[in-house]
């Protein structure tokens, strides 16, 4: 595919593309597919690219950065890739040939312990504690420093099982309701296919987006955000509610279609694999 290795100044008012990850750039918990990787590599010539998700940093590397390397991303392009894990409560930037943490807002250890115990108790009471289905070395509840994440089947479960477990989100809604009764002073958000993210109040994607704007020294009018849970109650909705222009997608195929259109407006054609 045609690819420039030099960053080009943006010719429209949008010069930042921000993305949810699961169901927006990929199939949940899998590396982004080659088509998305190729499109993002090309976009890095024209835009700052900012994944903003509840995933931990190490998962960003597996799901985003490694596929970009396979697609031929250069170190110069990686300087325009900004990683905002844990709903943007952490930020990593590529400098001097490596990824460096710019900020982190971790939970207190006592809060992590309380959240962990509450999530497990709620899931067990409702009959949704699926420890028997875990792969070796996997875990249901994970400390992501600035948030605690419940993944009902663990991180390594087959994708088809994850999609089937709670397709209407009723199980997770029940777990959240039970947790809010037991431990009300935290933020609970449903995300992905089997996950619940728990953080300190206000530590949602609005927090992450505001820090993105601050770190990149831009106005929100410069950002176009892509997400699959943009309706009220979805974990992308805080970005919509703060007035950031948003494209709602159902899958990475929708995102690919939109990115091809955006690049086409710039005169760039990326051939499909």
The name of the CATH topology of the largest domain is: Rossmann fold
- Indicate the proportion of strand residues: 15-25%
CATH superfamily of the largest domain: HAD superfamily/HAD-like
Cα-to-Cα separation, first versus last residue: 9 Å
Strand ordering within the main sheet:
2-1-10-11
Largest sheet: 4 strands, parallel
Total E-strand runs: 11
Taking pLDDT < 50 over at least 5 consecutive residues as the criterion, the unreliable ranges are 1-11
- Spatial extent as radius of gyration: 18 Å
Overall helicity = 25-40%
Category from helices, strands and their pairing: alpha/beta
- Domain count, please report it: 2
Which overall shape is indicated by the principal axes computed on the Cα atoms?
Answer: globular
Number of helices: 9
Order of helices and strands: EHEHHEEEHEEHHEEHEHEH
Mean pLDDT: 92
Would you identify the CATH architecture of the largest domain?
3-Layer(aba) Sandwich
In short, what is this structure?
The chain has 273 residues and is α/β, with parallel strands linked by helices.
Written overview of the protein:
- This protein has 273 residues and is α/β, with parallel strands linked by helices.
- The protein has 2 domains: 152 residues, 3-Layer(aba) Sandwich (Rossmann fold), CATH 3.40.50.1000; 91 residues, Eukaryotic phosphomannomutase, cap domain (Hypothetical Protein, Haloacid Dehalogenase-like Hydrolase, Chain: A, domain 2, 2-Layer Sandwich).
- 36% of the residues lie in helices and 18% in strands.
- It contains 9 helices and 11 strands.
- The strands form 3 sheets. Strands 2-1-10-11 form a 4-stranded parallel β-sheet, with no helix packed on it. Strands 6-7-9-8 form a 4-stranded antiparallel β-sheet, covered by helices on one side. Strands 3-4-5 form a 3-stranded antiparallel β-sheet, with no helix packed on it.
- Strand 1, helix 1 and strand 2 form a beta-alpha-beta unit.
- The longest helix has 18 residues.
- The chain starts with 15 loop residues before the first strand and ends in an 8-residue tail after the last helix.
- The N terminus is likely disordered.
């Amino acid at each position: 595919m045609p690819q420039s290795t030099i960053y080009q100044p943006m010719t429209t008012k949008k010069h930042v593309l921000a993305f949810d990850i699961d169901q927006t750039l990929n199939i949940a918990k899998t590396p982004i597919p080659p088509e998305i990787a190729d499109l993002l590599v090309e976009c890095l010539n024209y835009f700052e690219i900012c994944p903003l998700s509840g995933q931990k940093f190490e998962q960003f590397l597996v799901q985003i950065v490694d596929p970009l390397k396979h697609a031929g991303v250069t170190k110069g392009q990686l300087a325009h890739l900004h990683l905002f894990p844990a709903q943007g409560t952490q930020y990593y930037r590529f400098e001097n040939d490596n990824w460096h943490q710019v900020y982190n807002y971790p939970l207190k250890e006592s809060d992590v312990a309380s959240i962990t115990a509450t999530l497990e108790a709620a899931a067990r009471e409702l009959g949704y504690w699926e420890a028997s289905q875990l792969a070796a070395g996997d875990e249901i509840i994970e400390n992501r420093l600035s948030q605690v994440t419940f993944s009902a089947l663990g991180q390594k479960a087959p994708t088809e099982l994850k999609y089937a477990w709670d397709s209407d989100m009723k199980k997770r809604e029940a777990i959240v309701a039970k947790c809010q009764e037991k431990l009300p002073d935290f933020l609970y958000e449903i995300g992905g296919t089997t996950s619940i993210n728990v953080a300190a109040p206000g530590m949602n994607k609005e927090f992450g987006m505001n820090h993105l704007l601050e770190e990149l020294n831009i106005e929100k009018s410069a950002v176009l955000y892509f997400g699959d849970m943009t309706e009220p109650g979805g974990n992308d909705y805080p970005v919509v509610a703060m007035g950031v222009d948003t494209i709602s997608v159902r899958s990475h195929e929708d995102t690919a279609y939109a990115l091809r259109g955006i690049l086409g407006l710039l005169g760039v054609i990326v051939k499909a694999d």
